[in-house]
Write a structure and sequence with these properties.
It contains 9 helices and no strands. The protein is mainly alpha-helical.
Length: 219
C-alpha cells in the first residue's frame, strides 16, 4: 500500500492587532495574581505570547501604556462584576452591587490585592484607576441614600464606608466565615448607620425604600 502523502503543517494564524493586545493584556492580568503591577516582567509577557519584547512595544508604545491597559482591564472586571440592574430600585441596586463585589473577591481575591499593592506603591495611573473604582461605589451608595444632604461630613463618611466595605470583603473572601448574603446585609446596613452617626439629623431623610429593604424598620 503506497504511503499517504504527508500533509503540510498549516501556518499559525496571525493575530489581528486588537486580538494581540487582548492576548497581552490577558497574560498581564493572569500574572497580576502573583505580583503587583510594577513588578510585571515585559520580557516574560512577550515570551509567553511568543513574540519579541520589541514587538510588544509595537502594540503598546511604552511599558507604562501596557501597565495602564492591564490595570484598566482589571478595573473593568471589578466594575462589571459589581454592576447592578439599572432598572431595580436604588436600594436593591446597592445590595446587588455589594453582592457582585463579594462574588468577584470570592473568585479573584489575589488579583485585587495585587491591584491594591500597586495603588499603595504610589504609581499615579494605578491610584487614578483605583479612585475610579472607589468613586463608582461611593456614587452608588449616595444614590441609595436618595435625597440625603451631601455635606462635607457625609462625603467623608461615604469614602470611609467604602474602605470598610473593602477591608471587610477582603477578610471575608479569605476565610468565608459566614454566608455571603449576611455580609451583603451587614455592609449595606453600615451605610445609613455611619451617615446618621455623622449627621443625626439625617435619620428623617433616609428613603423609606432603603429602610424597608435593609430591615431597619424592624429595629
Amino acid at each position: 500500500m503506497p504511503a499517504s502523502p504527508s500533509r503540510p503543517v498549516p501556518a499559525r494564524a496571525r493575530l489581528s492587532a486588537d486580538d494581540r493586545r487582548r492576548q497581552l493584556v490577558g497574560i498581564g492580568l493572569r500574572m497580576l495574581t502573583e505580583r503587583p503591577i510594577h513588578e510585571l516582567s515585559i520580557d516574560e509577557i512577550a515570551a509567553e505570547a511568543g513574540i519579541s519584547r520589541g514587538l510588544l512595544f509595537h502594540y503598546f508604545a511604552t511599558k507604562r501604556d501596557f501597565y495602564v491597559a492591564v490595570v484598566r482591564a482589571a478595573a473593568r472586571r471589578i466594575l462589571r462584576a459589581a454592576r447592578p440592574d439599572p432598572g431595580a430600585p436604588l436600594a436593591e441596586q446597592l445590595t446587588q452591587s455589594l453582592d457582585g463585589y463579594l462574588g468577584f473577591l470570592e473568585r479573584r481575591r489575589e488579583p485585587y490585592v495585587a491591584l491594591l499593592r500597586g495603588s499603595a506603591g504610589g504609581a499615579d495611573y494605578v491610584v487614578e484607576i483605583y479612585e475610579e473604582i472607589r468613586g463608582a461605589f461611593v456614587e452608588r451608595a449616595a444614590a441609595a441614600l436618595g435625597p440625603v444632604s451631601r455635606t462635607p461630613r457625609t462625603e467623608l463618611v461615604l469614602r470611609g464606608w467604602f474602605s470598610f466595605v473593602e477591608d471587610t470583603a477582603l477578610a471575608w473572601a479569605k476565610e468565608r466565615p459566614m454566608p455571603r448574603e449576611d455580609v451583603v446585609l451587614l455592609l449595606a446596613q453600615a451605610l445609613p448607620a455611619l451617615v446618621t452617626t455623622a449627621e443625626p439629623g439625617l435619620r428623617a431623610e433616609l428613603p423609606a425604600e432603603l429602610v424597608t429593604h435593609l430591615g431597619l424598620d424592624r429595629r
